[in-house]
Here is the input.
Amino acid sequence: MKHKLVVIGAGMASGRMLEHLFEARESSEAGDGFHVTLFNAEPRGNYNRLMLSPVLSGEKIYDQIVTHDADWYAAQCVDCRFGEPVVRIDRAARTVHSNAGAVPYDALVIATGSAPFIVPVPGKALQGVCTYRDLEDTNAMIAASKPGTRAVVIGGGLLGLEAAAGMAARGAEVTVIHLMGHLMERQLDPAAGYLLQKDLERRGIRIHCKGATKAILGVEKVEAVLLEDGTVYPADLVCMAVGIRPEVRLANDAHLDVGRGITVDAQLRTSDPAIFALGECVEHDKQLFGLVAPLYDQARVLAATLLGKDATFKPVQTATKLKVTGVDLFSVGDFADAPGREDIVFRDPGRGVYKRLILEGDRLLGAVLYGEITDGAWFFDKIKSAEDISALRDTLIFGPAFAAGGSTANPLAAVAALPPEAEICGCNGVCKGKIITAIQAGAATLDAVRSQTKASASCGICTGLVEQLMALTLGDAFAANTNPPMCKCTDHSHEDVRRLIKSIGLKSIPAVMQDLGWKTVGGCASCRPALNYYLIADWPLEYVDDRQSRFVNERNHANIQKDGTYSVVPRMWGGVTTPAELRAIADAAEKYAVPMLKVTGGQRIDLLGVKKEHLPAIWADFNAAGMVSGHAYAKGLRTVKTCVGTEFCRFGTQDSTGLGIKLEKLLWGSWTPAKVKLGVSGCPRNCAEATCKDIGVVCVDSGYQISVAGAAGMDVRETVALITVTTEAEVMEVIAAFTQAYRENARYLHRIYKWVAKVGLEWCKTQIEDPVVRGALYDRFMLSQSIYQTDPWAEHAAHPAEWAPIADLTLRAAE
Amino acid sequence: MTQMIDIAALADIPRQGARVVKTRHGCIALFRTADDQVFALEDRCPHKGGPLSDGIVHGTSVTCPLHAWVFDLATGLTQGADEGAIRTYAVRLEAGRVLLDANFLTRAQAA
Here is the structure.
């Protein structure tokens, strides 16, 4: 005879509890098991509520966040009553009543969750006021968040900021009103709150701290929000995200013991022994629960209790992370100022990194990390284990990589240093040991690890950590999918080195070699140019180009030829020249007895066979004629090839020549991972061959089709469409931003098509389509150009002696 | 007998770089390492004649700019799989000046 189990509420906590129950049934621990009736007020089953923020921001769709679909419920024989709210519990008759009738129970689980707190101000019921709790709220915000919509979010906590970032990502103009002095004051100290505010403001979100809402204004529909200080923010949508309160109405009506939440004991039993409760609606030991980790723990305990096994719920500390793409913050433990407490603080304002550890005696008490959070799990472990950290104290803030010793510092060291009980997945309370056991038992893919352990299956922030554990455990088997080291001087891959340069803040080649444990003195001809490039790209203001780490062509600003002579290519903007320039080229060719003059594929003229000592003089002559270096030798912008467009061509739709010249004037001088060639064609006949360039523009009547990742060398590739825009200004911004994304992320010597194949065109599109991200990329590109857009020929032509032999002994007589 | 000729100030050679001395028997590359050691070698790779003075200097080695052969600056021997050697010349640092042994000028004639 099966027990009749009725569950009210199909949220994440009750969903997890049912999983545990059914797992037990499969392993036949539970005899006949339960017949489950599941009520839910929402007209759907269990989905991952934590993932509503990515749905709101457009990074995911609802189908991707469903935890239990109809097939799952059917397979488990759950009687689903979705969209059927429970109206009454009859404890005496042991029945649950909905408007459709009564269902009897042997055991009842109340999992009604929480309801958003509505700020009791005038106008709170106006059309256009919503909360942020379920899919309906999310869809309402998505529908309202059109570009230009003005949205006001009341509440600068976790939920409010995720709502704000999500709507901003969809183009809404968002203002956040927060009562306290800084954002997320329960999780962050003022310094980290300030960094967060700056980051969000950079994304175009307006933040108003110390703002108390006085009224929501409007006739039928929301029109504005009025604050106590008199400020008025016009609004088409108001989202209240000031907090939640346990949903206890059913329990109250049934006369169960209720404090702030439904009172439960350590077995999740209410004051009625046949009734249990779990999730955000309960109060245990005077505590309420809002984060998912303790709720999952309750689910485990309650399933065991229902199965007649001993289990005890004991709340543990949980860490907080914000799910806003591109904002990294982590906080755990106690970080309030108090007597006897000390801080270790690390700040790098340039990178927006802030780390603070709070110590009491020899124990780590709390940690707040902003901008760089990879060491969070390690600090959390030190807090939970309460171990004596006095021996580590000097370098504690640098994390496990440093604790393991500089020479072994590698990205896996941080994970390797964690003990087996260290928590990797905070949402699901999965520790390192459990993940490693699963991997050793055959879980060889991320999906397999997720399905077997649940690690990284909820908010997903720990995915990187899980992958690192796989790399650690599987060794070569996993390494087969990863990158080889940069060169024989190091074990780090290009990607790791790039990341570590940024995350550790390494700003010189010796610093990189020292901190990343280079195995050679002074590197080699392979890694030095790569490091020099990475440092130029990442620290345009601080790093000084190391000419001696440049390959000969870039060091000498000309291409070396097989006989040690050089080729010289002056820049011809867009391939357009003048009689005066041609005359200067002809004069130089005669004056320096240039053996060959040749027209290049990029619409330039190449002077081949110039002696090294003549380079400064020939450059000076070209400078005098108004020409600068054509960078034909550079891992940088080479040429923008154009057709004649509307200027002369009867088919041209736009001024492709003019646009090509503008693009070349925008991009010249920039250093990139490998050479970059552009083409701009004035119509789809594509005479500039734009669709086999690194970046190509094809003009059409209605605008400009920008495509990327072409190649016409060792590999031949057609470009793929990136975006179509309507103005020249947009073309310029998109191409500068895309080039900057390439500069910041690609490995050295990878052409754009190789890089795009790695990161995916979709990722590139997200960078370009989001106006905030694109604008920031553009700004960083222009910042770099403010330093590097200079003519190297002019600089070196001023010191011709350095290009000649240092001494000439040919005339010195032998004795 | 060694005849040392004053060539230039150490500062005239860039760190991790090289400068060239022209002679009747071909060019000699004067290398300066990151830690200010100075070496003098024939400026011609035995592979295809590349100018080693335009190579990247790393540690006490130089990589040829044409096809990336690597030479030990102290011995002139190739490193790795490539086989070959280049001539080295005696060189000395004195009071910030670089002195080169010029005996080869006469010896080469005699040889």
User: Anything to note?
Assistant: Chain B touches chain A at residues 3, 5, 7-8, 12-17, 19-24, 27, 30, 33-34, 48-51, 54-59, 61, 63, 65-66, 68, 70, 102, 105-106, 109 (CB under 8 Å). The two ends of chain B are 16 Å apart (CA to CA). The CA atoms of residues 23 and 105 of chain B lie 8 Å apart. Chain B is about 5% helix and 40% strand.
